[in-house]
């Protein structure tokens, strides 16, 4: 039968009278269409229930592989730099130990105040007061602030500040104020806040 005749049979077919039980007598083109649709549905169902989940798992595995490769490269770089990192860590620990030695203990703060007083006297300054404030506890150290007020000429005041900065214990200087004490401005009054710090060993074991 020709293709033209088969197409004519399809056009003339009464679709409402089709019965699936009589599908063997349907035009072969209709049977072919139905077979193609059935196979398409079967393949779609197989893909949906079997292939799609596997494809999703494959994508997840590829993403996980990518992250593992990145982690591996990072670990490899760290391993390659491990000797350098150890040297840097040892250097930092050595510097930290040196800085700790420069921090006075709580018992050494009065001695530090005496050193500051001696520095002022050495530079011929008049000491109005050196007055301790209440200590302030931080995470890894205790901050001990104190107020200093001395009088003298500009050069002696500058030498005193340099002397305090050069003490063997760490003393930081803040909030400077210079006021003239006579008409010609030769005599000055220095007021400032100084701070020293005590290390807290117990902080090493805290989370």
Description:
Residues 55-102 form a coiled coil. β2 and β3 form a beta hairpin. The N and C termini lie far apart (90 Å). It contains five helices and five strands. It has 207 residues and is α+β, with helices and mostly antiparallel strands.
Q: How many β-strand stretches?
A: 5
pLDDT averaged residue by residue: 79
User: What is the number of helical segments per DSSP (H or I, 4+ residues)?
Assistant: 5
- The total domain count is 2
Distance N to C terminus: 90 Å
The secondary-structure class comes to alpha+beta
Low-confidence segments, ≥5 residues, pLDDT <50?
Answer: 203-207
CATH superfamily descriptor of the largest domain = Ribosomal protein S6/Translation elongation factor EF1B
Shape: rod-shaped
Computed Rg: 45 Å
Largest sheet: 5 strands, antiparallel
CATH topology assignment of the largest domain: Alpha-Beta Plaits
Helical residue percent?
Answer: 40-55%
N to C succession of SSEs: HHHHEEEHEE
What is the CATH C level class of the largest domain, in words?
Alpha Beta
Task: Give the amount of beta strand, in percent.
Answer: 15-25%
Named CATH architecture of the largest domain: 2-Layer Sandwich
Pfam families: PilO
Protein name: Type IV pilus assembly protein PilO
GO biological process, one term: type IV pilus-dependent motility
Keywords: Coiled coil, Membrane, Transmembrane, Transmembrane helix
């Amino acid at each position: 039968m020709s293709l033209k005749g088969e197409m004519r049979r399809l056009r003339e077919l009464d679709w409402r009278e089709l019965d699936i039980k009589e599908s063997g007598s349907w035009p072969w083109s209709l049977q072919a269409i139905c077979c193609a649709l059935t196979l398409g549905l079967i393949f779609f169902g197989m893909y949906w229930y079997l292939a799609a989940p596997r494809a999703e798992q494959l994508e997840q595995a590829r993403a996980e592989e990518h992250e593992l490769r990145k982690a591996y490269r990072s670990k490899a770089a760290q391993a390659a730099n491990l000797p350098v990192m150890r040297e840097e860590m040892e250097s930092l620990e050595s510097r930290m130990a040196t800085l700790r030695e420069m921090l006075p203990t709580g018992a050494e703060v009065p001695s530090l105040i005496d050193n500051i007083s001696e520095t002022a006297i050495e530079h011929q300054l008049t000491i109005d007061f050196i007055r301790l404030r209440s200590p302030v506890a931080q995470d890894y150290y205790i901050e001990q602030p104190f107020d200093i007020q001395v009088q003298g000429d500009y050069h002696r005041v500058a030498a005193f500040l340099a002397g305090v900065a050069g003490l063997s214990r760490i003393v930081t200087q803040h909030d400077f104020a210079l006021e003239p004490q006579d008409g010609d401005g030769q005599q000055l009054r220095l007021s400032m806040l100084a701070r020293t710090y005590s290390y807290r060993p117990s902080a090493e074991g805290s989370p």
